[in-house]
Structure formats: structure tokens, C-alpha cells
Amino acid sequence: MHVGLVGLGRMGANMRTRLREHDIAVTGYDRDPAVSDAASLAELVEALPVGRRIVWVMVPSGAPTRSVVAELAGLLKAGDIVIDGGNSHYKDDLEHASALAEHEIGYLDVGVSGGVWGLANGYGLMAGGSHDDVAAAMPLFDALRPEGERADGFVHSGPVGAGHYAKMVHNGIEYGLMQAYAEGFELLGAQQLITDVPGTLRAWTHGTVVRSWLLDLLVAALDQDPGLGEIDDWVEDSGEGRWTVDEAIDLAVPLPVISAALFARFASRQGASPAMKAVAALRQQFGGHAVRPASPEQ
Hints:
12 helices, seven-stranded mixed beta sheet, alpha/beta, Rossmann fold, N-(1-d-carboxylethyl)-l-norvaline Dehydrogenase, domain 2
């Protein structure tokens, strides 16, 4: 199998490597010629063998994704498939699919989770689109997902839009989990009875009901920087948390924990907070997201 991959940043470059490790040929395109296999989108499409061509897009949501999809609509042919694996809003997926359908080009939206660790561990995948298009792309999904049962790392969530909707909710849950660990970290540090905060958290990583990969990553962050003194407590949000809360409001579904976690990120930009240092550290651990260095007064 031979696939085109657009966008070779943190996620895209690792996905290219993992696909190649599973004997799938990849022609990648990125605006940075130092990492790109093709000089343009047109050259990428030309490099794909004749037949049902698949191009996977891993660029920022919004205008960048819309631009790439529009250009691919003019380069691909009937029967080809475009996969958006970025974090697009699910309503954008409906527009992308409609525009491509005018050229009889298929479209899949795929939520991808795994961050910078996906290369080694595999990626959790949530796909939206037709059964036929999902079946055509299944060798890609099987290469990218974790080893083991397919259902443990891949789901065909529903029609177009379902994949990114599922990923949006996934990321909303992620907000709440990180916030809970972060607040626990701050409370442990506030009580003088606890003389080993990192050790206490480490002791929770096996056997307890709160063990998880996120907890493992928090412990790893504390191993690197025990007091989290090297990073600022400013925590960015990439958009999915806001979209999740917007959906909850529209559907009258109560999301007090996820909403509070989102607002806590807003609060992190207003003053010092040990809890938000922990959230910032977690985002860096699992996704390679940038953190701000601590200011001298901290």
C-alpha cells in the first residue's frame, strides 16, 4: 500500500515512520522542505500509484485544513479518499465531505490520540465516514493503532463527523482527568504531613483505582523537575475543550467537571498555580506541547 501524508510535524512525522515500519509506502509533504518527500501537493499526488489513492492530512484545524482539502479536490480523482486526521471541528467535516463529494472523492475524519508516544505505543483512532471508505483505509488504521485487538484501539464511530466528535469528547475528558490529578498534586504539597509528594503519586501508579497513563506521565514530569519549578503555570487550550462545553450547552448535557477544567485553564493565565504547572507538565509529557519557562519571581 502507498499513501500520501500531508503535514510532518510532531504527529505526522511519527505517523510516517510508524506506517513505514509496517511496510506501507509513504510520500509525505510539508511546507518545510527539510522533512518533505515531495515539493508540492501536486507532486505528492503524482507520486501515488494509479488506483484508489488515499491522502491523509495532518495539519492544523480551520483554514489550513480547508486550504489543503480544497487543493486536493482539484488534484485527486473519483474514487480517491481524503482522510483528515487533525483536530477539525466535526461541523467542518460535513463541509469538507460535501465539497469532495462533488468530485466523487471520499472523505474520512479520524480522531487520533497518542501524542508523541504514538510512534512507539500506537495511536487510538476514531473514524467517521462510509463503511466502504473505512474498509479501504483499514490497512493504515491497523498499522497505526496499538498492537492487539483492533477494537481496543480503533472504532468506526459513525458517519462523517463522528470521528472528530468522538475525539472532541475524548479531549474534554482528558481535561477533567488532568485537572483532578493536578489539584491532588497541589493539595498534597500544601499539607506539611506529606514529605514526599512525588513518591506518593508514584505509589498510586500500580494497584490503585486512580492509576492511569496520565498519572504515569505526571510522575515522569516530577522525576525530571520535582517541584515543577522550571515551567510556568500558563496552560493553553487547543480548542476541543471549548467545543465540548459548547456541545454540552447545545444538548443540555451537564458537564461540570470538564467545564471547570476548561475554566481552570483560563484561570492559569491570571496568576501562579501549582496545579496548573502540573497540567502544563502533563501536556508536555504526552503531546510535546510547548511550556513557558518559569518567570524569575516564581
